[in-house]
Amino acid sequence: MTPQVLVRAVENASERWAMARKLQQQTAAAQTSEQHFQALAQATSDIVYRMSADLSVMHPLDGRALVASADTPLAGWAWLDRYVPADEHARVRQAIGVAISQKALFSLEHRVLRPDGSIGWTASRAVPILDAEGNVLEWFGAAADITQRKTGEDALARSESFARSVVEFSPDCMKGLTLDGRLLWMNNNGQRLMEVGDFATLRGCDWSSLWEAGGPRVQAKAALASARAGGIGRFTGFCLTAAGKPRWWDVAVTAIPGQDGRAEQLLAVSRDVTEQRAFETALQKSRQELQTLADNTPDVLARFDRQLRYVFVNVAVERVTGLAPAQFLGKTNREMGMPIELCDMWGAAIAAVFDKGQAVSRDFSYDAATGARHFHSTLIPERGPNGEVVSVLSVTRDRTDEKQAQDALRIADRRKDEFLATLAHELRNPLAPLRTGVQVLRLTKDPSIAQRTQLMMERQLGQMVRLIDDLLDVSRITNGKVVLRLARIELQAAIHTAVEAVQPLLDAAAQALQLDIPADPIWLQADATRISQVVNNLLTNASKYSPHGSRVVLGVQRAGSDAVVTVADQGEGIPQHMLAQLFEMFTQVDRTLDRAQGGLGIGLALVKRLVELHGGAVTASSAGLGAGSTFTVRLPTLDDAQGLDSPMAPVEEPATPVSLR
């Protein structure tokens, strides 16, 4: 062996020894690295994995309950099918391709298949291990279980999405405010309601300044203060839109807490209640109008529930019962002390309306605070939304005056019939002797018989003329066509004229007339003929209804500024119930047709009208049947020096006389 060969042999041996030593060192380092890897895999809570250079092979790994553990390598992309849902494959492969091409960090959050078949989430990161030439030898990575975080993030995202949906699709105007009340944001519907074209013009402005100065603005600031204090600020106020349209809002302001629980923002929710407020205002107005109508109607209005209790009564009930409406509420008629028979009638009627749903009417009498009254009630069903009767409304009308008017009409009709019958009787009485007298005058030749017959016919004709004159006078007075010829007259003179006219009637009945008349003249402004007619009628009545041989007293006296004329007789008297009706047309105390002196029942009515035309009054009094009666006439007098300057009644000018042949 030459020295060169020996040197070369030594060099080769040295290189082999160095390579063996390096291999031994590398093997030891690999063993150490494997031990470190295993220690790290056991120490960390994440999944630690090793993969081939192309990431198609996964070395055995502990799945840590996130995925199934693998005791043998998973080659040919088997790990992808085993651990990753099919719909995530494309995304995972794309990330792998980028990492391999760039020889850079692989990082991806993706879904994984859990051992129990459910879906979990992992955050996987792998770094490439490169050789000296920069080639990828393998990948070393770790996968963290982020299922809970993803679940929370998903819930938060759904919550935020829901919140955004609530805000954006809410029919209300929703606004975010700073703690000092400045506008941060407004939902789209709110901008539409507020007619805001560009919210940027409002961002940062003081929200309370948008409210009407005065009460609404003060309420807005108070609501902000309540929200900052942890409460809810509420108020209803008036605010103009950006376009100047008036609107009413129902507002609630509350705090939005941050992560530390303290208020971070304020949320103001404003609901447009303009139409509702207008409806409520109209409803309130309608209720006030109905209440005003109910309180001012003369009818008694009441509402009953199914227990027959009052739930509403108008003020008209106080006029009838003397009790305030509030005293009826919640009570039944029995509890109000109404007579039993009326309670039974009302209870049956109300129950019938509830059962049949049809209105009913009832007439009844009741001793009201003003006396016995007559009423007519209509009970009306009131229905709820489903059509059933929920209450009964009664409308009760006082028909006392109507009933009295009807009774008066019936009485007047009866009196009219009686008057016509009496008139026929009264006219027949003089006609029969007149017809007989005409026949006697045609047949007799004896002057004395003719003279007596003529006198008889004149008396009967005078009676007929008087009846007709009374009828004409009543007609004129009723129609307002009577003519009073007023003059300054002496009352005594008019009375003497009447006495002279009635004296033959008194003498025929052997009746004494006592005159109590003062000597001093009493002056009236009156129609002398009509005053005589009044006294004549009263004296004639006194004679007719007094027995043969009785006495009639005619008295005159002053009573202050009035003259009082009284005519008293000892006749049949007047029942007390007839005194109020005595001066009505066609009224007679004795209505028998066979009593000739009964008259037509118009004499006293004529007296009353004539006296009233003179500004006076007439009354009648009697102690009863058989006790006689007294008629009193009061007429205003004139002073001795007073003339026609102060007429007591208007004078009607007589019509222009027509020439007669």
Explain what the structure shows.
The protein has 661 residues and is an alpha+beta fold. The chain has helices at 3-43, 78-83, 89-102, 147-169, 188-193, 215-228, 274-296, 316-321, 340-356, 400-443, 447-478, 491-508, 528-544, 603-613, and strands spanning 47-52, 106-113, 119-130, 136-145, 173-177, 183-186, 233-240, 246-257, 263-272, 300-304, 310-313, 360-368, 371-383, 389-398, 487-490, 512-516, 523-526, 551-559, 562-569, 617-622, 629-636. The strands form five sheets. The protein has a five-stranded antiparallel sheet. A five-stranded antiparallel sheet has the order 11-10-14-13-12, with helices on both faces. The protein has a five-stranded mixed sheet with strand order 16-18-19-21-20, covered by helices on one side. It is rod-shaped and about 225 Å long.
Q: Determine the structural class based on helices, strands and strand pairing.
A: alpha+beta
CATH homologous superfamily descriptor of the domain at 476-636 = Histidine kinase-like ATPase, C-terminal domain
Largest sheet: 5 strands, antiparallel
Strand order of the largest sheet: 6-5-9-8-7
Cα distance spanning the termini: 207 Å
Could you estimate the helical fraction of the residues in percent? Answer: 40-55%
How many strands in all? 21
Stretches where pLDDT is under 50 for at least 5 consecutive residues are 591-598, 643-655
